[in-house]
Specification:
By secondary structure, the chain is mainly alpha-helical. The protein contains four helices and five strands. Helix content is 46%, strand content 9%.
Length: 164
């Protein structure tokens, strides 16, 4: 038997006029968020769907992104910033005819530095911190933890259900 449950606390929901109400959370739950039998809302952790062009969104748009997306995006932005920093170093050493290119590269470096700060500060607002280093191991660890959490039920066993 399927029991409609709250995606936040796992309590059985009351159906009222094609809407669902959670008495514990004291709120209505959108139909698309209703879960079954105490399951958690599935949050996929996709590493491949974020590109550097996503970082061109304005800050208000970035604030609407998931925390996982922002972490992946921060990694890409930091790499882009490092690339422009390295280009700038080479152009500054070359001097001469490359001054115009150095100025453009300097503007690009500033842009990506500010984007990194935006992403770091959004993450900091949400979690109190932001990752110093974002490695492949760090991202795969997040994906493993997300899968593990997605699989955890929010049902409390009663004495009748417990088998000792």
């Amino acid at each position: 038997m399927v029991i409609h449950t709250c995606p936040y606390c796992g309590v059985d929901l009351k159906s009222e006029n094609d809407a669902y109400y959670c008495g514990f959370c004291e709120m209505f739950v959108a139909t698309e968020d209703v879960q079954e039998n105490g399951q958690r809302k599935q949050i996929p952790f996709l590493l491949n769907n974020i590109t550097i062009s996503d970082a061109d969104e304005n800050t208000r748009q970035l604030m609407q992104r998931s925390t996982n997306d922002l972490i992946v995006m921060l990694r890409l932005v930091r790499q882009k910033r490092t690339d422009f920093y390295n280009y700038l170093r080479v152009l500054n050493k070359a001097k001469g005819d490359f001054q115009e290119h150095a100025e453009l590269t300097g503007k690009d470096y500033e842009y990506w530095t500010r984007k990194a700060w935006v992403l770091e500060n959004i993450l900091r607002d949400r979690t109190g911190v932001f990752p110093e280093r974002i490695t492949d191991d760090y991202l795969s660890g997040l994906a493993v933890r997300a899968d593990k959490i997605n699989g955890k039920s929010m049902r409390i066993r009663t004495k009748k259900q417990q088998h000792i």
